[in-house]
Each structure stands twice: as structure tokens, then as C-alpha cells.
Amino acid sequence: VRSERTAPGDRPARPHRPARARTVPGHTTETEPAVPEGGGGPDGGNVESRAGGEDGERSEVVAGGEVVAGGEVVAGGEESLRSGFVTVVGRPNVGKSTLVNRILGTKVTITSPRPNTTRRAVRGVLHRPGLQGVFVDTPGLHRPRTALGTRLNEQVADALDDIDVVVPVLDATGPIGPGDRYVLERAAATCRGPAAAGATGPLSRVLVAVNKVDRASRAQILERLEGARRVLEGEGADAGVEYFPVSAVSGQGVDALVDAVLARLPEGPAYFPPGMVTDVPEAFWVAELVREQLLAHVREELPHSIACLVTEWEWPRVRIEIVVERDSQKGMVIGKGGAMLKEVGTAVRAQLPPGAFVELRVRVEKHWQQRPDMIERLGY
């Protein structure tokens, strides 16, 4: 199975259930890093463990009439497996990405204390014997002020389509506001209807996670749990909803949440091959690592204006373009004598295989957040 190259300007596919692919007995699957043609977009290609086929396609090995990948081996080619998609939603900066990384036990999405860090739905795959849960990290739902903001909200709506479980995430340290109520209402609307097997109520596919309990008092946690219950009661009924106080940072309560999620998955196919933890293209991932480091170092006015795009991929050499909106921001990103870029490049290389060479360039694209053409080109 080889990864498809993405042409310049192609927007990454929205989250959906990937098609299945088969390999013949004795066939070895392999992947190659794809070079963005003509300075292509962030879907430049997949390498190493992040690759696993086109858009998460599954590879099976069939031997002697038995399926020996992705679940329990059953004679006659039948497979006993529960699988499904789990969308994690919430306002910006409630800890969705940190929670997804904690659930998967590895980093598949960047994190930052800045709001709206996540700009694209990211799928991470949790493999358990007889189970496969695909957790979808989403941008924060918010009131958009730019064309980019509108596009991010559209990605959340797409990620809520055709799912098996939804996990609304609330912040235990702050009161439940209009944004949280909207998130809970959307989750309830998404999951209302046919319930999962063994369901105890109409909203049994809604599992509310109250995050950051390591930073909240017991009274605050109880207040958030009760507040969420009242909102869902106002939606008609909260029967079947479960509530989980968790800390994505420490891991407190996360195992119980994961167990409840997996218990709600229906019987289904393996959507991803064993060992694959994400379908994020490697080129997009490297660009995101650059943006993560910039978010950790730049001033308050810059985060929303920064985007990163791989323009050349000839492994181990990678060229990444950092896009800002104003000339004054370009100087801030470069730093005195190039100090900022040097620091960012060093931090990114430390997270890549040995020998990687990262070249960073900065370019100004005025008002790119309001320009649909640039939003498309940047992969959002």
C-alpha cells in the first residue's frame, strides 16, 4: 500500500470512515515519503509508523481461510471485532488534544495553552484485543470572526457526522458558559436516535468529560458535573449520559472514560491496520511541530496569524514555510539574528528521526485568515 501524493492546494479529506484494502498472501506492505509536487501542501506524504495506506485503509493478511489481522481469528474468514469512531468536542483550550494524546499513549496532535491550536480534525487509533477505537480530535467550537474560524467550525460539524460515541469536554476550572452549553446541545443532537447495544437511555452515546480536575477544587468539579447534567436535562432527557471527572495531564479518571467508550462501540471492521496510531500525513505532522514550537515562543498577538506549510520534502531534508499576515510579524518570528528560527528548528529536529534537516522560511500573506484560497492551500 503506497501513500497518495497530494497536489498543491488539495485540502485534506474530511474525517470519514475509510475504505478497506486487502493484500494478497505473502505481500509486504510498505510506504514511501511523498514529495509535494510543485511545492505541495501539508499532505505531502507518509513515512514510518504514521503511514498505513491511503486515508487509513486497512491491510489484511489472509492465510488458510482465516483472517489474522485486526481482531479475533475466526475460521472461515469471519472476524469478531468491535470498532467505531469517537469524536472529542469542546470549546477552545479545554484540553481536547491533551486528552486524546493521553488516551492513545502517544502524541498524535500538537498541544498549546493558546486557544484554537487544533486547526484540523486528527484521527488517532486505539488498538485493544477485539477492539479498535478511532478517536477524532477536533478544533474548538467558537464564534468565528474570520473565514478560517468558520472553516474550523465546519470541520467539527463534519467530525460529528456518522459517529458512534461523542465525548464533550468541559473545563473544571471555569463556569459552564454559552459555549459549553452549545457543545453539549450539539453532542445531544448528534447522538439522539437509535441507541447502542445495551444502552440505558437515548443519550447513552454521550460521555461527558470534565477535564483539568487536577487544577480544580472538589466543589468546582461537582458544580461542573451538575451544570452539565442540567443542560442535558434541558435537551429533553439525560438518560444514559455518563459523566467522568478526568485530568488529561495526570491521567486521573482517563482509564474509566476509555473503558466506557470502548464498551459502546458496535461490531464492525478494522478501519486501520494493527500498529497504526494515526492517519496524519508525515509532512503535515512536521509542519504542525513547527507551529507548536512557534506558539510556545511568540507573543500574544501572533498565534492566530501563524500557519506552516511543507514546500519541499526530500527526506531527510524538509523545507517548511511559515506564513504570517504582516511584515512586522515576520521580524518577530525570525528573531534577532535569526535566534527564534534557530530555537524552533532545534526543538523540532529533536522530535524527528536522527539526521533530519529542517529549513525554515518566513513569508507574508496579508489577511490570509480571511482568504479562502489561502485557507485551502494551507490544508484547513
Tally of alpha and pi helices: 9
Give Rg in angstroms: 21 Å
- Please describe the biggest sheet, giving its number of strands, its sense, and whether it closes into a barrel: 6 strands, mixed
Provide the structure class: alpha/beta
Share of β-strand residues: 15-25%
| Multimerization state | single chain
Q: What shape does the CA trace take?
A: globular
Compute the separation of the termini in Å: 26 Å
Strands side by side in the biggest sheet: 6-7-5-8-9-10
Provide the residue-averaged pLDDT.
Answer: 81
Strand segment tally: 13
Helix and strand run: EEEEEHEEHEHEHEHHEEHHEH
Low-confidence stretches: 1-78
In which range does the helix fraction lie? 25-40%
Structural account:
This protein has about 375 residues and is α/β, with parallel strands linked by helices. The protein is about 25% helix and about 20% strand. The chain contains nine helices and 13 strands. It has helices spanning about 95-105, 145-160, 180-190, 220-235, 255-265, 280-295, 325-335, 340-350, 370-375; strands spanning about 60-65, 65, 70-75, 80, 80-90, 120-130, 130-135, 165-170, 205-210, 240-245, 305-315, 315-325, 355-365. The protein has a six-stranded mixed β-sheet, sandwiched between helices. Strand 8, helix 3 and strand 9 form a beta-alpha-beta unit. The longest helix is centred in the middle third of the chain and has 17 residues, at about 220-235. The chain starts with about 60 loop residues before the first strand and ends with a helix. Residues about 1-80 have low confidence and may be disordered.
